């Protein structure tokens, strides 16, 4: 890949410059708004929102943290994000094991039925989901945010793909040693597919950290708010000092960027290719 | 029975049970329920009571509903923009010039950005009095644009957030497709004297056409399901500027009319289904 001097890569100068220009424009589009948000969040209240020379202050962050009571939403978001990622990996990997490596009657039907739930948009079924959560006595709890999304059909699909690629001899060897199904799953299958599981966890983390619609519906109390719900609330609360809301937005962006920076090597293009062939 | 039993006969059921329970109850169960609820009068205070097609006939007469549908249809225009931008991004990463490996990472940043944060970023740029965009327009002696208050600008503003947040993801799909185009094929073509543009249109483009079809289907379905970009970016604009999902939220959780919201939900579900089937039929025909 890095052996750059491919025959085809000996391109004329104008073409090289053109692609660098395109790359520069795309980078500005992708990164520019985030940088601008950070710049504005560090400027004192008042003043123009297009000025680079607005000064520097931490007041907005103090206001966001103290008056916006962000500590609890931050904790809640961390909790539901970890819970959703861990449960999704665990339950999806459990379900994918028989679908990938056991032969039983109705296997293909089971796979198709589970996968078909991907066709049901969350946005269409919010009313009955809300009703169920209220019926279970989970309204306004963090469990309400986690439970319906504790496994995704996409996760099952991803795990099944990875499990099917494992050579059968490894399973066979473990079985000779007397390992049962659960044991084989845990100590043979999961370690061998760790990169896929991490990728799935990463997708879940990104989704759970960002989600607004469902938490907005089932959470009502300051104590149960997740960061996006708290942020949505602050938009009206801080109408007079919008910069505090921008500071809060920076605080919600930072953790996910750190996770992304640490885990980005697991986001390989091949995984997205699975969707193409799938 | 197999020659040697490898798993307990109940093992598949045991492994599948948790996933089947969650997806069965919350997704399949909810779909059955929302269908039923759409035929009932059901509010925050009473019901559900069976009323037949009452909700649907009222929807047909509702200007608000048709307005939301029209806005959703307009919102679909974001799809071609997403395809062009994400394909361009993928090609830029794929030329493998020095430093381009950073580009992939930079362009993925919007994908991991929480949607509400993305919406806030863009609200900052859209600010009609002192945002960067209008300041830039005034620099050129042009009038500022009412990004957050007037239709269709409100729809465009929200759609730009969807575009910004989405193109990095679809870029990855295109990168995977480009990686599957044999380099030797492209090199052979270029050795035969084909120009770069000819290689692209005759070799590369036909091989990634299935990926384009896929991105077309996925991105237009998610455009029909859009909520947060509108709800947050143009907060304060009237409901007539919103698409179908924000209307569902408003009818169900602000007006407490669950039966009507269910009917809107079912309508959207049918539209998405028909849409995906038609698209899959059309796009599978273009494949070799």
Would you write up a description of this structure?
The complex is a heterodimer of chains A (278) and B (288). Chain A is mostly helical and 278 residues long. Chain A folds into two domains: 57 residues, no CATH class; 208 residues, MetI-like fold. Chain A has 14 helices and no strands. In chain A, helix 3 packs across helix 7, helix 3 runs antiparallel to helix 12 and helix 10 runs antiparallel to helix 13. The longest helix of chain A is centred in the N-terminal third of the chain and has 31 residues. Chain A starts with 12 loop residues before the first helix and ends with a helix. The N terminus of chain A is likely disordered. Chain B has 288 residues and is mostly helical. Chain B folds into two domains: 52 residues, no CATH class; 167 residues, MetI-like (MetI-like fold, Orthogonal Bundle). Chain B contains 13 helices and two strands, in the order H-E-E-H-H-H-H-H-H-H-H-H-H-H-H. In chain B, helix 8 packs across helix 10 and helix 12 runs antiparallel to helix 13. The longest helix of chain B is centred in the last third of the chain and has 29 residues.
What key attributes describe this structure?
heterodimer; A: 278 residues; mainly alpha; MetI-like fold; 2 domains; 14 helices; disordered N terminus; B: 288 residues; 72% helix
């Amino acid at each position: 890949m890095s052996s750059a001097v491919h025959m085809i890569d000996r391109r004329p100068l104008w073409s090289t410059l053109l692609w660098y220009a395109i790359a520069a424009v795309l980078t500005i589009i992708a990164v520019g708004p985030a940088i601008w948000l950070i710049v504005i969040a560090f400027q004192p209240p008042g003043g123009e929102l297009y000025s680079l020379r607005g000064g520097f202050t931490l007041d907005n962050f103090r206001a966001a943290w103290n008056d916006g009571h962000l500590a609890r939403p931050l904790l809640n978001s961390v909790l539901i994000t970890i819970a959703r990622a861990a449960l999704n990996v665990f339950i999806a990997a459990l379900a994918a094991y028989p679908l990938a490596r056991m032969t039983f009657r109705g296997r293909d039907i089971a796979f198709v039925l589970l996968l078909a739930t991907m066709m049901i948009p969350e946005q269409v079924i919010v009313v009955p989901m809300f009703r169920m959560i209220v019926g279970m006595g989970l309204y306004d709890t963090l469990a309400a945010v986690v439970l319906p999304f504790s496994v995704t059909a996409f996760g099952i699909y991803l795990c099944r793909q990875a499990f099917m690629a494992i050579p059968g001899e490894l399973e066979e060897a473990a079985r000779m040693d007397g390992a049962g199904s659960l044991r084989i799953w845990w100590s043979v299958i999961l370690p061998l597919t760790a990169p896929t599981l991490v990728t799935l966890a990463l997708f879940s983390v990104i989704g759970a950290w960002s989600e607004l619609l469902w938490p907005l519906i089932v959470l009502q109390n300051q104590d149960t708010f997740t960061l996006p719900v708290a942020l949505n609330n602050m938009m009206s609360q801080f109408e007079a000092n919008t910069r505090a809301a921008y500071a809060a937005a920076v605080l919600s962006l930072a953790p996910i960027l750190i996770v992304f920076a640490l885990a980005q090597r697991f986001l390989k293009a091949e995984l997205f290719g699975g969707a193409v062939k799938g | 029975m197999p020659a040697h039993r490898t798993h307990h006969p109940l093992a598949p059921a045991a492994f599948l049970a948790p996933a089947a329970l969650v997806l069965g109850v919350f997704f399949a169960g909810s779909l059955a329920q929302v269908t039923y609820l759409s035929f009932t009068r059901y509010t925050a205070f009473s019901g559900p009571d069976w009323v037949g097609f009452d909700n649907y006939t009222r929807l047909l007469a509702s200007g608000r509903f048709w307005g939301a549908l029209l806005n959703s249809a307009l919102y679909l225009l974001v799809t071609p923009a997403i395809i062009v931008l994400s394909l361009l991004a993928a090609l830029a990463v794929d030329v493998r010039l020095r430093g381009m490996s950073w580009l992939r990472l930079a362009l993925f940043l919007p994908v991991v950005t929480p949607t509400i944060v993305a919406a806030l970023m863009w609200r900052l740029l859209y600010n009609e009095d002192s945002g960067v965009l209008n300041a830039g327009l005034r620099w050129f002696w042009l009038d500022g644009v009412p990004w957050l208050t007037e239709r269709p600008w409100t729809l465009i503003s929200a759609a730009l957030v969807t575009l910004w947040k989405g193109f990095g993801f679809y870029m990855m799909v295109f990168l995977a497709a480009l990686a599957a185009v044999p380099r030797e094929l492209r090199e052979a073509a270029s050795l035969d004297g084909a120009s770069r543009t000819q290689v692209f249109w005759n070799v590369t483009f036909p091989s990634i056409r299935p990926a384009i079809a896929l991105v077309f289907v996925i991105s237009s379905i998610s455009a029909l399901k859009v909520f947060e970009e509108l709800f947050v970016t143009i907060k304060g604009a009237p409901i007539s500027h919103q698409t179908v999902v924000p209307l569902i939220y408003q009818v169900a959780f602000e007006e407490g009319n669950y039966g009507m919201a269910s009917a809107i939900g079912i309508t959207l579900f049918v539209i998405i289904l028909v849409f995906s089937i038609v698209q899959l039929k059309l796009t599978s025909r273009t494949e070799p």
